Amino acid sequence: MKAHETVLQWVTGELAAGRLHVGDRLPGERVLSQELAISRSAVREALRVLEVLGTIRSATGSGPNAGTIITATPEQGLSTALGLQLASRQVSAEDLMQLRVLLETWCARSADPDGADWEEAERLLDRMDDPGLDRAAFLRLDAEFHAVCASAARNPLVSTLMDALRLTIAEQTRARAERIEGWAGLAERLQAEHRAVLRRLREGEGAEAATLLERHIRGYHERTERG
Questions:
Q1: What is the set of domains in the chain, with CATH numbers?
Q2: What percent of the chain has pLDDT over 70?
Q3: 112 to each of 88, 107, 122, 150, 151, how far by Cα in Å?
């Protein structure tokens, strides 16, 4: 077993047993090295891997936020892995689009009208109305809006997946948007579609919102495919 797997297995076991909780500090390198019977250099390597995975956060110093703290934010690791898969062409834009349709339409159909921060969704759309906003900023806010809408399903695992997808979606949609002429007109159309989806979700019309979302996601994919 690799060093980081040994440490991850130990952290998982301690969390499952209730001896560690999110927000707790891990023991120091020397203690972990002795307890797990691995070298201190192996512990350091393991901690670097776990930080990339989003399992821990490390900070130097002596304040309340110093040390190695359990964060359990798996979306960070998932986002990194998905970004690498896209960059290496192991996952295509078509694959990502299909995953978005699958997740987001399910979330819409399962949405609780009181299950998301709709005011935050409105604020995101208001910011996206700014004509001076560049494409990259618009699409980062776009991905945040979709994640907020998905949270209405009140499924923490799906919310984690959507958070993990958020940066990947923003980057992938930005790359495709670069080939588009007449961006202002497309952004205006996307905003109209966003507001229609949000209205249906707030009114408890999940099936209608799902239909609009699928049309919205597939429409953007097809429009940017043509260039």
A1: 3-72 (1.10.10.10), 75-226 (1.20.120.530)
A2: 89
A3: 38, 9, 17, 10, 9
